[in-house]
Amino acid sequence: MRAEDSISPIVPPEEKQYSYLNLGPTHPATHGIFQNVLKMDGEVIVEAESTIGYIHRAFEKLAERRPFYQITPITDRMNYCSAPINNIGWHMTVEKLLGVEIPKRVQYMRVIIMELARITDHLICNAVIGVDTGALTGFVYMFQQREHVYEIYEEICGARLTTNLGRIGGFERDFSPKAWAKIEKFLKEFPEVLKEFEKLLVRNRIFMDRTIGVGGITAERALNYGFTGPNLRAAGVDYDVRVMNPYSSYEDFNFTVPVGTQGDTYDRFMVRQAEMWQSLSIIRQAIDKMPAGPNHADVPDFYLPPKEEVYNNMESLIYHFKIVMGETDVPKGEVYHSVEGGNGELGFYLISDGGRTPFRLHFRRPCFIYYQAYTEMVKGSMLSDAILTMSSMNVIAGELDA
Amino acid sequence: MESSKTDAIISIIRQEFESEIVHIEQPYQLLTITFKPERIIEIIQFIYSHSELQFQFLTTLCGIHYPDQNQIAVMYQLHNLRTNQRIRLKIFLSADQPQVPTLTGIFSAANWMERETYDFFGVTFIGHPNLKRILNVEDMIFFPLRKEFPLEDQTREDKNDALFGR
Fold this sequence. Notes:
The complex is a heterodimer. Chain A contains 18 helices and 6 strands. By secondary structure, chain A is mainly α. In chain A, strands 1-2-3 form a 3-stranded antiparallel β-sheet. In chain A, 49% of the residues are buried. Helix content of chain B is 22%, strand content 28%. Chain B has helices at 3-17, 40-49, 110-121, and strands spanning 21-25, 31-35, 57-66, 71-80, 85-94, 99-101, 124-126. In chain B, the strands form 2 sheets. Chain B has a 5-stranded mixed β-sheet, with helices on one face. Chain B is globular and about 60 Å long. Chain B starts with a helix and ends in a 40-residue tail after the last strand.
Protein backbone atom coordinates (compact mmCIF):
# COMPACT_ATOMS: atom_id res chain seq x y z
CA MET A 1 0.00 0.00 0.00
CA ARG A 2 1.37 3.36 -0.93
CA ALA A 3 1.54 6.12 1.64
CA GLU A 4 -1.07 8.38 0.03
CA ASP A 5 -3.63 5.57 -0.09
CA SER A 6 -3.66 5.28 3.68
CA ILE A 7 -4.50 8.94 4.14
CA SER A 8 -8.26 9.46 4.12
CA PRO A 9 -9.39 12.21 1.73
CA ILE A 10 -9.79 15.57 3.43
CA VAL A 11 -12.87 16.45 1.39
CA PRO A 12 -15.62 13.80 1.27
CA PRO A 13 -16.68 13.00 -2.29
CA GLU A 14 -20.11 14.66 -2.11
CA GLU A 15 -18.56 17.98 -1.21
CA LYS A 16 -15.91 17.71 -3.83
CA GLN A 17 -15.27 20.90 -5.74
CA TYR A 18 -14.37 20.98 -9.38
CA SER A 19 -12.46 23.55 -11.30
CA TYR A 20 -13.55 24.86 -14.67
CA LEU A 21 -11.15 25.43 -17.48
CA ASN A 22 -11.70 27.32 -20.69
CA LEU A 23 -9.78 25.48 -23.36
CA GLY A 24 -9.94 27.95 -26.20
CA PRO A 25 -11.27 29.79 -28.20
CA THR A 26 -7.73 30.91 -28.96
CA HIS A 27 -5.54 28.35 -27.36
CA PRO A 28 -2.21 27.55 -29.01
CA ALA A 29 -2.73 23.83 -28.62
CA THR A 30 -6.14 23.59 -30.26
CA HIS A 31 -4.95 24.50 -33.79
CA GLY A 32 -8.05 26.48 -34.60
CA ILE A 33 -10.78 28.47 -32.99
CA PHE A 34 -12.71 26.07 -30.79
CA GLN A 35 -13.82 26.56 -27.27
CA ASN A 36 -14.27 23.75 -24.80
CA VAL A 37 -15.39 24.39 -21.28
CA LEU A 38 -13.94 21.59 -19.22
CA LYS A 39 -15.05 20.56 -15.76
CA MET A 40 -11.92 19.25 -14.15
CA ASP A 41 -11.19 17.07 -11.19
CA GLY A 42 -7.53 17.78 -10.80
CA GLU A 43 -6.16 16.95 -14.21
CA VAL A 44 -8.97 14.63 -15.20
CA ILE A 45 -11.86 15.83 -17.33
CA VAL A 46 -15.22 15.14 -15.75
CA GLU A 47 -17.38 16.90 -18.28
CA ALA A 48 -16.85 18.95 -21.38
CA GLU A 49 -18.93 21.27 -23.49
CA SER A 50 -17.92 22.51 -26.90
CA THR A 51 -18.86 25.86 -28.34
CA ILE A 52 -18.39 26.26 -32.04
CA GLY A 53 -19.19 28.87 -34.66
CA TYR A 54 -16.36 31.30 -34.11
CA ILE A 55 -15.56 31.52 -37.80
CA HIS A 56 -19.02 30.90 -39.17
CA ARG A 57 -19.40 32.70 -42.51
CA ALA A 58 -22.85 31.60 -43.64
CA PHE A 59 -21.69 29.79 -46.76
CA GLU A 60 -25.03 28.15 -47.33
CA LYS A 61 -26.71 31.54 -47.41
CA LEU A 62 -24.02 33.13 -49.57
CA ALA A 63 -24.36 30.29 -52.06
CA GLU A 64 -28.02 31.09 -52.61
CA ARG A 65 -27.11 34.33 -54.33
CA ARG A 66 -24.18 33.19 -56.40
CA PRO A 67 -23.98 31.66 -59.85
CA PHE A 68 -22.60 28.14 -59.77
CA TYR A 69 -19.05 28.93 -60.77
CA GLN A 70 -18.79 31.54 -58.03
CA ILE A 71 -19.54 28.96 -55.36
CA THR A 72 -16.22 27.17 -55.99
CA PRO A 73 -14.17 29.73 -54.01
CA ILE A 74 -16.61 29.32 -51.12
CA THR A 75 -15.90 25.61 -50.97
CA ASP A 76 -12.15 26.33 -50.74
CA ARG A 77 -12.66 27.87 -47.39
CA MET A 78 -14.27 24.87 -45.77
CA ASN A 79 -11.50 22.34 -45.40
CA TYR A 80 -8.61 24.58 -46.37
CA CYS A 81 -6.09 21.79 -45.80
CA SER A 82 -7.45 19.94 -48.81
CA ALA A 83 -9.23 22.66 -50.78
CA PRO A 84 -8.99 20.95 -54.21
CA ILE A 85 -11.14 18.04 -53.02
CA ASN A 86 -13.86 20.49 -52.07
CA ASN A 87 -13.56 22.32 -55.40
CA ILE A 88 -13.71 19.17 -57.45
CA GLY A 89 -16.51 17.74 -55.32
CA TRP A 90 -18.55 20.84 -56.06
CA HIS A 91 -17.76 20.73 -59.78
CA MET A 92 -18.86 17.11 -59.87
CA THR A 93 -22.10 17.96 -58.09
CA VAL A 94 -22.96 20.54 -60.73
CA GLU A 95 -21.91 18.18 -63.50
CA LYS A 96 -24.19 15.53 -62.03
CA LEU A 97 -27.05 18.02 -62.02
CA LEU A 98 -26.35 18.99 -65.62
CA GLY A 99 -25.74 15.40 -66.71
CA VAL A 100 -22.37 16.14 -68.28
CA GLU A 101 -20.08 13.38 -69.51
CA ILE A 102 -16.54 14.08 -68.31
CA PRO A 103 -13.58 12.95 -70.45
CA LYS A 104 -11.43 10.20 -68.99
CA ARG A 105 -8.33 12.40 -68.99
CA VAL A 106 -10.02 15.00 -66.83
CA GLN A 107 -11.15 12.32 -64.39
CA TYR A 108 -7.62 10.98 -64.06
CA MET A 109 -6.18 14.47 -63.63
CA ARG A 110 -8.75 15.08 -60.93
CA VAL A 111 -7.77 11.89 -59.18
CA ILE A 112 -4.14 13.03 -59.13
CA ILE A 113 -5.07 16.39 -57.65
CA MET A 114 -7.47 14.93 -55.10
CA GLU A 115 -4.92 12.40 -53.90
CA LEU A 116 -2.27 15.10 -53.59
CA ALA A 117 -4.77 17.06 -51.51
CA ARG A 118 -5.46 14.02 -49.36
CA ILE A 119 -1.75 13.63 -48.74
CA THR A 120 -1.39 17.25 -47.61
CA ASP A 121 -4.42 16.92 -45.37
CA HIS A 122 -3.21 13.75 -43.65
CA LEU A 123 0.35 15.02 -43.55
CA ILE A 124 -0.59 18.08 -41.56
CA CYS A 125 -2.77 16.10 -39.20
CA ASN A 126 -0.13 13.49 -38.47
CA ALA A 127 2.66 16.02 -38.20
CA VAL A 128 0.58 17.95 -35.68
CA ILE A 129 -0.08 14.82 -33.63
CA GLY A 130 3.68 14.58 -33.46
CA VAL A 131 3.96 18.17 -32.28
CA ASP A 132 1.35 17.62 -29.59
CA THR A 133 3.31 14.69 -28.24
CA GLY A 134 6.45 16.77 -28.21
CA ALA A 135 8.09 15.75 -31.48
CA LEU A 136 8.55 18.95 -33.43
CA THR A 137 11.23 17.65 -35.77
CA GLY A 138 8.97 15.49 -37.93
CA PHE A 139 6.59 18.37 -38.34
CA VAL A 140 9.24 20.58 -39.90
CA TYR A 141 10.25 17.98 -42.47
CA MET A 142 6.67 17.08 -43.33
CA PHE A 143 5.67 20.68 -43.75
CA GLN A 144 8.36 21.13 -46.33
CA GLN A 145 6.68 18.43 -48.39
CA ARG A 146 3.39 20.25 -48.17
CA GLU A 147 5.18 23.18 -49.70
CA HIS A 148 6.11 21.02 -52.68
CA VAL A 149 2.48 20.03 -53.19
CA TYR A 150 1.48 23.68 -53.02
CA GLU A 151 3.99 24.41 -55.73
CA ILE A 152 2.24 21.83 -57.87
CA TYR A 153 -1.11 23.54 -57.26
CA GLU A 154 0.52 26.85 -58.08
CA GLU A 155 1.74 25.48 -61.37
CA ILE A 156 -1.71 24.13 -62.21
CA CYS A 157 -4.03 26.92 -61.11
CA GLY A 158 -1.92 29.77 -59.76
CA ALA A 159 -3.12 29.57 -56.17
CA ARG A 160 -1.76 27.72 -53.17
CA LEU A 161 -4.02 27.38 -50.16
CA THR A 162 -7.49 28.36 -51.34
CA THR A 163 -7.07 27.00 -54.79
CA ASN A 164 -10.31 27.56 -56.71
CA LEU A 165 -8.97 24.78 -58.87
CA GLY A 166 -10.58 23.60 -62.07
CA ARG A 167 -13.88 24.56 -63.57
CA ILE A 168 -17.26 23.03 -64.05
CA GLY A 169 -16.50 20.59 -66.85
CA GLY A 170 -12.78 20.15 -66.38
CA PHE A 171 -9.57 22.12 -66.04
CA GLU A 172 -8.64 25.56 -67.30
CA ARG A 173 -5.67 24.08 -69.13
CA ASP A 174 -3.77 20.86 -69.36
CA PHE A 175 -1.05 20.35 -66.77
CA SER A 176 2.12 21.98 -68.03
CA PRO A 177 5.29 19.89 -68.49
CA LYS A 178 6.63 21.72 -65.45
CA ALA A 179 3.67 20.57 -63.37
CA TRP A 180 4.19 16.97 -64.47
CA ALA A 181 7.85 17.26 -63.57
CA LYS A 182 6.97 18.59 -60.15
CA ILE A 183 4.52 15.77 -59.53
CA GLU A 184 7.21 13.26 -60.52
CA LYS A 185 9.68 14.95 -58.23
CA PHE A 186 7.22 14.83 -55.36
CA LEU A 187 6.50 11.15 -55.96
CA LYS A 188 10.22 10.48 -55.82
CA GLU A 189 11.06 12.57 -52.76
CA PHE A 190 8.02 12.25 -50.53
CA PRO A 191 8.28 8.48 -49.80
CA GLU A 192 11.73 9.04 -48.34
CA VAL A 193 10.45 11.69 -45.96
CA LEU A 194 7.37 9.69 -45.08
CA LYS A 195 9.55 6.69 -44.27
CA GLU A 196 11.76 8.82 -42.04
CA PHE A 197 8.72 10.24 -40.32
CA GLU A 198 7.39 6.75 -39.67
CA LYS A 199 10.73 5.68 -38.25
CA LEU A 200 10.55 8.64 -35.92
CA LEU A 201 7.12 7.90 -34.48
CA VAL A 202 5.49 4.59 -35.31
CA ARG A 203 7.49 2.40 -32.93
CA ASN A 204 8.57 5.22 -30.65
CA ARG A 205 7.90 4.18 -27.04
CA ILE A 206 6.99 7.68 -25.88
CA PHE A 207 4.69 8.27 -28.81
CA MET A 208 2.98 4.92 -28.37
CA ASP A 209 2.48 5.47 -24.66
CA ARG A 210 0.95 8.84 -25.35
CA THR A 211 -1.42 7.70 -28.09
CA ILE A 212 -2.47 4.07 -27.61
CA GLY A 213 -5.79 3.86 -25.80
CA VAL A 214 -6.23 7.63 -25.86
CA GLY A 215 -9.45 9.12 -27.17
CA GLY A 216 -10.84 5.82 -28.37
CA ILE A 217 -14.31 5.23 -29.73
CA THR A 218 -16.05 1.99 -30.61
CA ALA A 219 -17.29 1.28 -34.10
CA GLU A 220 -20.94 1.34 -32.95
CA ARG A 221 -20.63 4.74 -31.32
CA ALA A 222 -18.66 6.09 -34.25
CA LEU A 223 -21.35 5.02 -36.70
CA ASN A 224 -24.07 6.39 -34.47
CA TYR A 225 -22.23 9.69 -34.36
CA GLY A 226 -21.99 9.80 -38.13
CA PHE A 227 -18.23 9.42 -38.29
CA THR A 228 -16.74 9.04 -41.74
CA GLY A 229 -13.28 9.02 -43.21
CA PRO A 230 -10.08 8.04 -41.39
CA ASN A 231 -11.71 8.47 -37.97
CA LEU A 232 -14.36 5.87 -38.77
CA ARG A 233 -11.88 3.57 -40.44
CA ALA A 234 -9.64 3.74 -37.37
CA ALA A 235 -12.56 2.33 -35.41
CA GLY A 236 -12.71 -0.62 -37.79
CA VAL A 237 -15.40 0.22 -40.34
CA ASP A 238 -14.12 0.16 -43.91
CA TYR A 239 -16.47 2.78 -45.32
CA ASP A 240 -14.77 4.79 -48.01
CA VAL A 241 -16.79 6.78 -50.55
CA ARG A 242 -14.12 6.15 -53.18
CA VAL A 243 -14.81 2.43 -52.97
CA MET A 244 -18.49 2.32 -52.18
CA ASN A 245 -19.69 4.93 -54.65
CA PRO A 246 -16.76 5.41 -57.03
CA TYR A 247 -16.63 8.79 -58.70
CA SER A 248 -14.14 10.24 -61.16
CA SER A 249 -12.97 6.76 -62.25
CA TYR A 250 -11.71 5.62 -58.85
CA GLU A 251 -12.86 2.15 -59.83
CA ASP A 252 -9.94 1.99 -62.30
CA PHE A 253 -7.31 2.02 -59.59
CA ASN A 254 -6.05 -0.62 -57.21
CA PHE A 255 -5.83 0.48 -53.63
CA THR A 256 -6.68 -0.86 -50.22
CA VAL A 257 -8.69 0.79 -47.49
CA PRO A 258 -6.65 0.70 -44.30
CA VAL A 259 -8.64 0.09 -41.11
CA GLY A 260 -7.76 0.17 -37.44
CA THR A 261 -9.21 -1.76 -34.55
CA GLN A 262 -9.32 0.44 -31.45
CA GLY A 263 -10.44 3.79 -32.84
CA ASP A 264 -7.88 5.53 -30.64
CA THR A 265 -5.38 8.23 -31.45
CA TYR A 266 -2.70 5.78 -32.49
CA ASP A 267 -5.04 4.02 -34.90
CA ARG A 268 -6.16 7.28 -36.42
CA PHE A 269 -2.53 8.20 -36.91
CA MET A 270 -1.73 4.84 -38.49
CA VAL A 271 -4.77 4.89 -40.78
CA ARG A 272 -3.81 8.31 -42.10
CA GLN A 273 -0.24 7.19 -42.49
CA ALA A 274 -1.31 4.14 -44.50
CA GLU A 275 -3.67 6.23 -46.60
CA MET A 276 -0.83 8.47 -47.67
CA TRP A 277 0.97 5.44 -49.07
CA GLN A 278 -2.19 4.39 -50.86
CA SER A 279 -2.60 7.89 -52.29
CA LEU A 280 0.93 7.80 -53.63
CA SER A 281 0.18 4.51 -55.32
CA ILE A 282 -3.04 5.88 -56.83
CA ILE A 283 -1.21 8.91 -58.22
CA ARG A 284 1.43 6.62 -59.73
CA GLN A 285 -1.25 4.48 -61.38
CA ALA A 286 -3.10 7.52 -62.69
CA ILE A 287 0.05 8.93 -64.27
CA ASP A 288 0.92 5.60 -65.85
CA LYS A 289 -2.57 5.05 -67.23
CA MET A 290 -3.21 8.69 -68.18
CA PRO A 291 -5.33 8.66 -71.33
CA ALA A 292 -5.01 11.28 -74.05
CA GLY A 293 -7.90 13.60 -74.76
CA PRO A 294 -9.31 17.03 -74.11
CA ASN A 295 -8.83 18.73 -70.73
CA HIS A 296 -12.49 19.66 -70.39
CA ALA A 297 -15.96 18.45 -71.27
CA ASP A 298 -18.17 20.06 -73.86
CA VAL A 299 -20.25 22.39 -71.69
CA PRO A 300 -20.14 25.80 -73.40
CA ASP A 301 -22.74 27.15 -70.94
CA PHE A 302 -20.33 26.77 -68.03
CA TYR A 303 -16.84 26.31 -69.37
CA LEU A 304 -15.23 29.61 -70.41
CA PRO A 305 -14.11 29.63 -74.06
CA PRO A 306 -10.43 30.32 -74.86
CA LYS A 307 -9.54 33.99 -74.85
CA GLU A 308 -8.55 34.12 -78.56
CA GLU A 309 -11.96 32.86 -79.52
CA VAL A 310 -13.69 35.39 -77.28
CA TYR A 311 -12.01 38.18 -79.25
CA ASN A 312 -12.64 36.69 -82.68
CA ASN A 313 -15.82 34.69 -82.48
CA MET A 314 -19.32 35.99 -81.77
CA GLU A 315 -20.67 32.85 -80.06
CA SER A 316 -17.67 32.59 -77.80
CA LEU A 317 -18.07 36.23 -76.80
CA ILE A 318 -21.71 35.65 -75.93
CA TYR A 319 -20.89 32.56 -73.87
CA HIS A 320 -18.08 34.40 -72.15
CA PHE A 321 -20.40 37.17 -71.01
CA LYS A 322 -23.19 34.84 -70.04
CA ILE A 323 -20.87 32.81 -67.86
CA VAL A 324 -19.10 35.75 -66.24
CA MET A 325 -22.35 37.55 -65.46
CA GLY A 326 -23.90 34.34 -64.16
CA GLU A 327 -26.76 34.41 -66.64
CA THR A 328 -26.98 30.70 -67.32
CA ASP A 329 -30.00 28.90 -66.00
CA VAL A 330 -29.51 25.35 -64.79
CA PRO A 331 -32.11 22.56 -64.95
CA LYS A 332 -34.46 21.97 -62.05
CA GLY A 333 -33.40 19.17 -59.80
CA GLU A 334 -32.41 17.83 -56.47
CA VAL A 335 -29.06 16.15 -56.28
CA TYR A 336 -26.73 14.78 -53.62
CA HIS A 337 -23.16 14.05 -54.45
CA SER A 338 -20.43 13.05 -52.05
CA VAL A 339 -16.71 12.64 -52.31
CA GLU A 340 -14.18 11.25 -49.88
CA GLY A 341 -12.68 14.40 -48.45
CA GLY A 342 -9.69 14.57 -46.20
CA ASN A 343 -11.89 14.01 -43.18
CA GLY A 344 -14.62 11.83 -44.57
CA GLU A 345 -17.74 11.99 -46.64
CA LEU A 346 -18.01 15.52 -47.97
CA GLY A 347 -21.49 15.85 -49.39
CA PHE A 348 -23.21 18.52 -51.43
CA TYR A 349 -26.99 18.57 -51.29
CA LEU A 350 -28.19 20.89 -53.99
CA ILE A 351 -31.71 21.93 -54.89
CA SER A 352 -32.04 23.91 -58.07
CA ASP A 353 -35.31 25.62 -58.96
CA GLY A 354 -34.23 26.26 -62.53
CA GLY A 355 -32.66 29.62 -61.83
CA ARG A 356 -29.06 30.69 -62.11
CA THR A 357 -28.26 30.24 -58.43
CA PRO A 358 -29.00 27.28 -56.18
CA PHE A 359 -32.32 27.38 -54.37
CA ARG A 360 -30.73 25.62 -51.45
CA LEU A 361 -27.26 24.25 -50.99
CA HIS A 362 -26.35 22.21 -47.95
CA PHE A 363 -22.85 21.01 -47.24
CA ARG A 364 -22.42 17.77 -45.36
CA ARG A 365 -19.25 18.67 -43.53
CA PRO A 366 -17.65 15.62 -41.92
CA CYS A 367 -15.90 17.69 -39.22
CA PHE A 368 -19.12 19.26 -38.02
CA ILE A 369 -20.73 15.88 -37.62
CA TYR A 370 -17.96 13.99 -35.86
CA TYR A 371 -16.73 16.80 -33.66
CA GLN A 372 -19.85 16.46 -31.51
CA ALA A 373 -18.47 13.15 -30.24
CA TYR A 374 -15.47 14.95 -28.83
CA THR A 375 -17.03 15.66 -25.43
CA GLU A 376 -17.89 12.01 -25.04
CA MET A 377 -14.44 10.88 -26.15
CA VAL A 378 -12.49 13.04 -23.71
CA LYS A 379 -14.64 12.33 -20.69
CA GLY A 380 -12.47 10.76 -17.99
CA SER A 381 -9.20 11.41 -19.76
CA MET A 382 -6.36 13.74 -18.86
CA LEU A 383 -6.17 17.28 -20.14
CA SER A 384 -3.09 16.58 -22.23
CA ASP A 385 -4.89 13.64 -23.85
CA ALA A 386 -7.82 15.86 -24.74
CA ILE A 387 -5.48 18.05 -26.78
CA LEU A 388 -4.12 14.98 -28.52
CA THR A 389 -7.59 13.60 -29.21
CA MET A 390 -8.61 16.84 -30.86
CA SER A 391 -5.59 17.03 -33.12
CA SER A 392 -5.89 13.39 -34.11
CA MET A 393 -9.54 13.90 -35.10
CA ASN A 394 -8.28 16.54 -37.52
CA VAL A 395 -10.96 19.10 -36.74
CA ILE A 396 -10.64 21.92 -39.26
CA ALA A 397 -12.30 25.10 -38.06
CA GLY A 398 -13.30 26.21 -41.54
CA GLU A 399 -15.15 23.01 -42.22
CA LEU A 400 -16.64 22.83 -38.76
CA ASP A 401 -18.24 26.25 -38.94
CA ALA A 402 -18.80 26.68 -42.69
CA MET B 1 -29.34 2.08 -57.59
CA GLU B 2 -31.06 -0.97 -58.95
CA SER B 3 -34.75 -0.54 -59.41
CA SER B 4 -35.68 -3.94 -57.98
CA LYS B 5 -33.99 -3.06 -54.69
CA THR B 6 -35.75 0.27 -54.58
CA ASP B 7 -39.09 -1.34 -55.32
CA ALA B 8 -38.53 -3.78 -52.47
CA ILE B 9 -37.81 -0.91 -50.08
CA ILE B 10 -40.85 1.01 -51.22
CA SER B 11 -43.12 -1.99 -50.81
CA ILE B 12 -41.85 -2.70 -47.28
CA ILE B 13 -42.42 0.91 -46.25
CA ARG B 14 -45.79 0.97 -48.00
CA GLN B 15 -46.97 -2.08 -46.11
CA GLU B 16 -46.35 -0.39 -42.79
CA PHE B 17 -46.94 3.28 -43.45
CA GLU B 18 -49.18 3.47 -46.53
CA SER B 19 -51.30 6.24 -45.07
CA GLU B 20 -48.30 8.37 -44.13
CA ILE B 21 -46.73 8.56 -47.58
CA VAL B 22 -47.37 11.77 -49.46
CA HIS B 23 -45.09 11.40 -52.44
CA ILE B 24 -42.38 9.12 -53.82
CA GLU B 25 -39.82 10.16 -56.38
CA GLN B 26 -36.28 9.29 -57.44
CA PRO B 27 -34.36 12.37 -58.47
CA TYR B 28 -30.92 11.31 -59.74
CA GLN B 29 -31.53 7.70 -58.62
CA LEU B 30 -31.91 8.60 -54.97
CA LEU B 31 -35.11 7.31 -53.46
CA THR B 32 -36.95 10.24 -51.89
CA ILE B 33 -40.10 9.73 -49.89
CA THR B 34 -42.18 12.57 -48.52
CA PHE B 35 -44.12 11.71 -45.38
CA LYS B 36 -46.68 13.41 -43.23
CA PRO B 37 -44.75 14.89 -40.32
CA GLU B 38 -46.61 13.32 -37.38
CA ARG B 39 -45.04 9.87 -37.28
CA ILE B 40 -41.65 10.58 -38.85
CA ILE B 41 -39.57 9.37 -35.91
CA GLU B 42 -41.54 6.13 -35.78
CA ILE B 43 -40.87 5.68 -39.50
CA ILE B 44 -37.15 6.28 -39.12
CA GLN B 45 -37.05 3.87 -36.18
CA PHE B 46 -38.81 1.32 -38.37
CA ILE B 47 -36.39 1.60 -41.29
CA TYR B 48 -33.51 1.62 -38.81
CA SER B 49 -34.40 -1.66 -37.18
CA HIS B 50 -36.19 -3.54 -39.97
CA SER B 51 -34.03 -6.52 -40.89
CA GLU B 52 -34.15 -5.86 -44.64
CA LEU B 53 -33.80 -2.08 -44.59
CA GLN B 54 -31.28 -1.33 -41.83
CA PHE B 55 -30.74 2.32 -42.61
CA GLN B 56 -28.42 2.76 -39.66
CA PHE B 57 -26.25 5.66 -40.74
CA LEU B 58 -27.53 9.23 -40.71
CA THR B 59 -25.70 10.96 -43.54
CA THR B 60 -27.22 14.38 -43.13
CA LEU B 61 -30.22 16.35 -41.99
CA CYS B 62 -31.17 19.85 -43.08
CA GLY B 63 -33.99 22.31 -43.52
CA ILE B 64 -35.34 23.90 -46.68
CA HIS B 65 -37.56 26.97 -46.72
CA TYR B 66 -40.31 27.30 -49.30
CA PRO B 67 -41.64 30.87 -48.89
CA ASP B 68 -44.36 30.49 -51.55
CA GLN B 69 -46.01 27.63 -49.70
CA ASN B 70 -45.06 29.09 -46.31
CA GLN B 71 -43.49 25.76 -45.48
CA ILE B 72 -40.25 24.46 -44.09
CA ALA B 73 -39.11 21.03 -45.16
CA VAL B 74 -36.84 18.89 -43.05
CA MET B 75 -34.77 16.44 -45.03
CA TYR B 76 -33.24 13.31 -43.49
CA GLN B 77 -30.79 11.33 -45.54
CA LEU B 78 -29.93 7.85 -44.39
CA HIS B 79 -27.56 5.24 -45.67
CA ASN B 80 -27.40 1.49 -45.35
CA LEU B 81 -23.67 0.86 -45.34
CA ARG B 82 -24.09 -2.89 -45.81
CA THR B 83 -25.99 -2.74 -49.09
CA ASN B 84 -24.91 0.78 -50.05
CA GLN B 85 -28.48 1.95 -50.31
CA ARG B 86 -29.37 5.56 -49.68
CA ILE B 87 -32.76 6.99 -48.82
CA ARG B 88 -33.98 10.53 -48.36
CA LEU B 89 -37.01 11.28 -46.21
CA LYS B 90 -38.78 14.59 -46.23
CA ILE B 91 -41.46 16.21 -44.17
CA PHE B 92 -43.13 19.54 -44.70
CA LEU B 93 -43.97 21.74 -41.73
CA SER B 94 -45.75 25.04 -41.51
CA ALA B 95 -43.23 27.88 -41.47
CA ASP B 96 -45.18 29.72 -38.77
CA GLN B 97 -44.47 27.25 -36.03
CA PRO B 98 -42.40 24.34 -37.32
CA GLN B 99 -42.22 21.54 -34.79
CA VAL B 100 -41.08 17.97 -35.06
CA PRO B 101 -39.89 15.38 -32.50
CA THR B 102 -36.18 14.94 -32.15
CA LEU B 103 -34.16 12.19 -33.78
CA THR B 104 -31.44 12.22 -31.13
CA GLY B 105 -32.98 9.14 -29.50
CA ILE B 106 -31.91 7.06 -32.50
CA PHE B 107 -28.85 8.88 -33.82
CA SER B 108 -26.41 10.80 -31.64
CA ALA B 109 -25.27 12.48 -34.83
CA ALA B 110 -28.63 14.23 -35.08
CA ASN B 111 -27.82 16.39 -32.06
CA TRP B 112 -25.81 19.11 -33.76
CA MET B 113 -27.56 18.71 -37.09
CA GLU B 114 -30.87 19.52 -35.40
CA ARG B 115 -29.32 22.40 -33.53
CA GLU B 116 -28.05 23.73 -36.84
CA THR B 117 -31.50 23.38 -38.40
CA TYR B 118 -33.04 25.15 -35.42
CA ASP B 119 -30.42 27.86 -35.64
CA PHE B 120 -31.02 28.60 -39.30
CA PHE B 121 -34.69 27.78 -39.82
CA GLY B 122 -36.28 27.94 -36.41
CA VAL B 123 -37.51 24.36 -36.46
CA THR B 124 -38.20 23.25 -32.90
CA PHE B 125 -37.16 19.67 -32.26
CA ILE B 126 -39.30 18.50 -29.37
CA GLY B 127 -37.36 16.52 -26.81
CA HIS B 128 -33.93 17.62 -27.95
CA PRO B 129 -31.49 17.58 -25.01
CA ASN B 130 -29.84 20.92 -25.72
CA LEU B 131 -31.74 22.87 -28.34
CA LYS B 132 -29.92 26.17 -28.66
CA ARG B 133 -28.16 28.05 -31.38
CA ILE B 134 -24.93 26.50 -32.53
CA LEU B 135 -23.21 28.55 -35.21
CA ASN B 136 -24.82 31.97 -34.74
CA VAL B 137 -24.69 34.13 -31.65
CA GLU B 138 -27.16 33.14 -28.99
CA ASP B 139 -29.05 36.43 -28.78
CA MET B 140 -29.89 36.48 -32.48
CA ILE B 141 -33.61 37.02 -33.02
CA PHE B 142 -34.11 35.72 -36.54
CA PHE B 143 -33.45 32.56 -38.53
CA PRO B 144 -31.01 33.52 -41.24
CA LEU B 145 -31.47 30.78 -43.82
CA ARG B 146 -35.11 31.60 -44.27
CA LYS B 147 -35.64 33.22 -47.63
CA GLU B 148 -37.04 36.48 -46.28
CA PHE B 149 -33.81 37.18 -44.45
CA PRO B 150 -31.78 39.50 -46.70
CA LEU B 151 -28.26 38.51 -47.59
CA GLU B 152 -26.82 41.99 -47.88
CA ASP B 153 -27.47 45.27 -46.17
CA GLN B 154 -30.69 46.48 -47.76
CA THR B 155 -30.03 50.14 -46.99
CA ARG B 156 -27.07 50.37 -49.29
CA GLU B 157 -27.60 52.27 -52.51
CA ASP B 158 -24.25 51.75 -54.16
CA LYS B 159 -24.99 48.14 -54.95
CA ASN B 160 -27.60 47.69 -57.63
CA ASP B 161 -28.15 44.00 -58.16
CA ALA B 162 -29.81 44.53 -61.53
CA LEU B 163 -26.53 45.76 -62.91
CA PHE B 164 -24.74 42.65 -61.78
CA GLY B 165 -27.03 40.09 -63.30
CA ARG B 166 -28.53 38.93 -60.05
